[in-house]
Here is the input.
Amino acid sequence: MMNWYFQSGKESDVVLDTKITISRNIEGFPFVPKLKDDQAKEIIDRLEQSSVIANYNLKMLKLSDMDELTRQSLVEKYMLNSKYINGNLENKAILMNEDENICIVLNEKDHLKIQVFASGLELESSLNLAMELEEKLDKELKFAYNNKYGYLTSSPTNLGTGLRASVIAHLPALSKTQNLSKIFEAVNDLGMNIKDIYGEGVRIKGNIYQISNKQTLGIREKDIIKNLKAIVDKVIEQERLARKILAKNQVELEDDVYRSYGILTNSRKITNEEMVSLMSDVRLGVDMGIIKEITDLKVNKLDILSRSANLQKYFGENLDVFDRNIKRAELVKKIINE
Amino acid sequence: MMNWYFQSGKESDVVLDTKITISRNIEGFPFVPKLKDDQAKEIIDRLEQSSVIANYNLKMLKLSDMDELTRQSLVEKYMLNSKYINGNLENKAILMNEDENICIVLNEKDHLKIQVFASGLELESSLNLAMELEEKLDKELKFAYNNKYGYLTSSPTNLGTGLRASVIAHLPALSKTQNLSKIFEAVNDLGMNIKDIYGEGVRIKGNIYQISNKQTLGIREKDIIKNLKAIVDKVIEQERLARKILAKNQVELEDDVYRSYGILTNSRKITNEEMVSLMSDVRLGVDMGIIKEITDLKVNKLDILSRSANLQKYFGENLDVFDRNIKRAELVKKIINE
Here is the structure.
């Protein structure tokens, strides 16, 4: 089994992955904050009977049936909101396929959060799949819709299409050449959001940014995607340009990425923060053809599996911070030598 | 050919090498500061005719016949004083064998500086060889001697025996456990000198110290050696004890030494300062049996050959600082992969 997130897709030297989210609510039920336990259960029941389960090889997984690490691992994979894994877990469930590229979350912020993931830049195809799922579910469930506002969502920022399209981009060269603020400005001016996925002002320097649409209302889905794609294409172009500038100082660049590679592969304990920062250099080195010792696949594996919950799931045990740091270094050696 | 300084001797986990220096002046000549050119040449001529040249396979090398890099390389190997390689080089010469463990310097501070080097802790045997050389030379040259003071030297600190015995010790664990100041105090109290070979207050942290005798007057050579040996044995014991303490925190220690190993072997440019500091960790790792990827011999080679002049001699070209840093990283790869 090769989950989508281990693979490399289009423009993967800059775009790590694409995520399409469509938020929907079922007619006749109150929004989640006012949803009663029996209503939440009824929504789960209705989904259980949906034809999409068989047609897309989905599995219904109740959050109360998962162990804590599995729930946290889904948060780390950006499938669940971290707030969602608290509270009454009986009312919460996901529908997911084996590849994990489809993940429908029930009773999170809205009744349904239809998510489609893909490696690399795959906005159109991901949107198509998400909309196909949405249509089929709509026929069976009937989603709350208003002629003026379009699809109704618990948060007004999602009203209309209920569509959030986002791309995760690795922008180390724009960062190293001090060009990020210009990019931030341009992306915002063009009506899109851009943010550091590790949070603003955080010490972690992974150089990984999420670019997503702001507007959901009064615009067609295809246009949202088209606009986002145009902007992401520009960002990719700028990042590649910045890499060419870095490449002019070949020794400096090689020294940077190989020092990080050297520390990564030789350390005996490594914090999550340091891992993220080292991986940015190593990914850049691999993507620029400098580091030849490891493949893209291994970079992705290291990236995903080194996150705290995934790491513990990988080793099949609950670990405190001290032991996680040791096991993280062990994981690196295992994957490098695979 | 395997020069003495690439080898590992006794107690080599702590003691890198031993050096015995006997300073002598020839009767009937003024001390070096007042020595005229023709007198300096006469001293060189007399040595040229000495029987020790043939008996110990020595070669006479005039400093004026060497290129600048070779002279600097001798300074880096602690055979010549850095001040000695300036001024009129016609009056200066050394007598050296192929192993380079015997190096007699002419007209430096005194007419003769008889030096014997050995890997590891070799005080007695080195003293014996140095005294054997001294006796043979004395018969032929007749050294200035005074019944009250013993052998006369240009600096009063060498009067008497003219003997300086020193040991180079690597004390990373005493440094990491913050025990160095105690050691410094004890060594000084026991009448010996101890100093950082990279100079006091210098930023370089190579954890390499020279321990040598203070007293040269009113004491027999054998007793100087015996006292120094007793103190060095204590220092070795303390350093080994400190290593045992470090070893209790195995992960921390392995992490430390392997990170340095990772940077050393992966960097693409490396300054002399950083090299010295990384090599201290790597040497500790190898000596404690943690780092198994390289041998003692390679550690010694890296240590010696990475010094600026040696590095340039190794690559057979004059290099500026920028290129030296690149070539230093290249040297590491070459030697590691030998």
